[in-house]
Amino acid sequence: MTISGWEQLLFIAAVTAVAAPLLGRYLAATFRGGRAPGDRVFLPVERLVYRVLGVDPESSWTWRSYALAVLAFGLVGTLLLYAILRLQGVLPGNPTHAPGMPPLLSFNTAISFITGTNWQVYEGETQASYLAGTAGLVVAQFTAAGVGLAVALAVVRGIAGPMGNTARTVGNFWSDLTRSLVRVFVPLSILGALVMVSQGAVQNLSGFRTAATLAGGTQKIPGGLVASMEAIKLLGTNGGSYYGTGGAHPFENPTPFTNIFDLLFVIVLPFAIIVMFGRLIGRPRQGYAIIAVMAIIFVAHTVVSMQAEHHGNHLLPASVSQVASGVSPGGNMEGKETRFGPEASALMTVGTMGTTAGATDSALDSYTPVGGTGAFAGILLGEISPGGDGGGLYSILVLALLAVFVAGLMVGRTPEFLGKKIRAPQMKLVVTYVLTIPVTVLIFASISLVIPAGLAAILNPGLHGLSEVTYAYASVANNNGSAFAGLAANTAWYDTTLGLTMLIGRFGPIVLSLAVAGSLAGARVHARTRATLDTAGPTFAAFLLGVIVIVGGLIYFPMLILGPIGERIVG
């Protein structure tokens, strides 16, 4: 890597190290209960929402009631968004005259945005109206982020809550969702959108503008409400873009500064949520231990891809220069913007693969096999580096329970986490959680590789084609949404199966993590002894890291051998 690449990575790390604790303290004060920062502004809005919904924000629910509310909210949101997409051709707010989406594409897109996946097999600037984009897609991006943070709060209350909670309650979904939106996502998105507009991101209602080209022809230039969608796309770790080319489009990601800002806007909040977790349970060191694990994974898979893209494609002939010069950044520039270069492109794109954002500024299909493996790794390890807003927290907490259990087996003690015994009922749920997404991914990917409907959409045969199919299912199952572009996924088979995979990948882990939290809610908190495993120390952090890598490796390593690793070896 060049000095510039290391400088950008260190800048990201430094800003995150400063901003995440500050934001984490604000989140902890907001969700601890009682008086909170900004009550004078936010509390009247929250009370109005509660009156409209007819809910009591002080009531607390069992994990089953909480899970049912999440599922019901997701179902209603999916149906509403599906209707908007189907009818957008006859609804107002459509200056680009986008027709209604076909049924299966509407089904896939509605599920994609409600689950926070933002998998897109359509061109946003031509196939989505302004009304569908703002009242449909952007609203779904807000609610998906809010649901993730709400569920994380419920899981924390269950796993780390005090004993004596005989009702085994985990909180109030409507209260958590409202507070998340009103006090976190809406105000921060407004600030983010203003930054994007100041840098040149488009924010208008002009539709298409016709411009004369240098060749004497004409070209339609799309406008749109880009900056506002870009802000919540990044902050909410959603990833859906206004333009088909995503962050490579200069109207969406205008400058090198916005390229760095985009990545920071994605990762700072998930890290801050872990800081919040440590402060809410009164054990800040526990939060920092988890952050250390997340940061190591983030740096590892990002640096691997940055280094690979900097070195370039070894299969190109010697006559093709891949050395940096005054007219080229050097390295593997296929599918990348010259204004960013290979390292900054890999930093932003692969850096978001450990979250549920999957935001890209370059074409993953054009990455080298090693560079693509770095993106794969961030997803296949469960998107916990640092994960989605809330999703990263409850995912790594479940993996921490698995690590504690394995450690307990090794020393012959009943495992404990935060003072609570981890027994058979919790481990059955944890194992189910760990296997749900991999089983779903491997089953659907395997079927797609042997049936005509799946094979017909693969534009690049061989090992790269296997990578494209597996990446698609792994991406949507982990609610990432990024894609290798060589798969023509807008077909009946892929629209349907990818939509089902998104539903399983989103709501399966949510229900299972809430079930784990419910099983521990009100459980006895045991006093620490000399034999108690310190889950906030470096030993446990290293052990947790090993469990994550081993579990991910055992499940997906055969696929990686047949995909990107095999492609690198064979050439």
Notes on the protein architecture:
The chain is mainly alpha-helical. The protein has one domain (3-315, 328-570). The chain is built from 19 helices and 6 strands. Strands 1-2 form a two-stranded antiparallel sheet. The chain has a two-stranded antiparallel sheet with strand order 3-4. A hairpin with a 5-residue loop joins strand 3 (208-212) and strand 4. Helix 3 (63-87) packs antiparallel against helix 6 (130-160), helix 10 (284-311) runs antiparallel to helix 12 and helix 14 runs antiparallel to helix 17 (492-520). The two termini are 22 Å apart. The mean pLDDT is 93.
Essential attributes:
mainly alpha; two-stranded antiparallel ribbon; 571 residues; 3% strand
Rounded mean pLDDT is 93
- Rg, Å, rounded: 23 Å
- Report the major sheet: 2 strands, antiparallel
- The ordered H/E elements are HHEHHHHEHEEHHHHHHEEHHHHHH
Please give the structural blueprint.
Elements lengths: L2 H29 L7 H15 L7 E2 H25 L15 H12 L9 H4 L2 H31 L8 E3 L1 H26 L9 E5 L5 E5 L3 H10 L20 H25 L3 H28 L29 H11 L17 H12 L10 H21 L4 E2 L2 E2 L2 H25 L3 H4 L7 H15 L14 H29 L17 H25 L1 H7 L1
Antiparallel strand pairs: 1-2, 3-4, 5-6
Helix pairs in contact: 1-9, 2-7, 3-4, 3-6, 3-17, 4-17, 6-7, 6-8, 6-17, 7-8, 8-9, 9-10, 9-11, 10-11, 10-12, 10-18, 11-12, 12-19, 13-14, 13-17, 13-18, 14-16, 14-17, 16-17
Short description:
By secondary structure, the chain is mainly alpha-helical. The chain has helices spanning 3-31, 39-53, 63-87, 103-114, 124-127, 130-160, 173-198, 226-235, 256-280, 284-311, 341-351, 369-380, 391-411, 424-448, 452-455, 463-477, 492-520, 538-562, 564-570; strands at 61-62, 169-171, 208-212, 218-222, 416-417, 420-421. It is built from 19 helices and six strands.
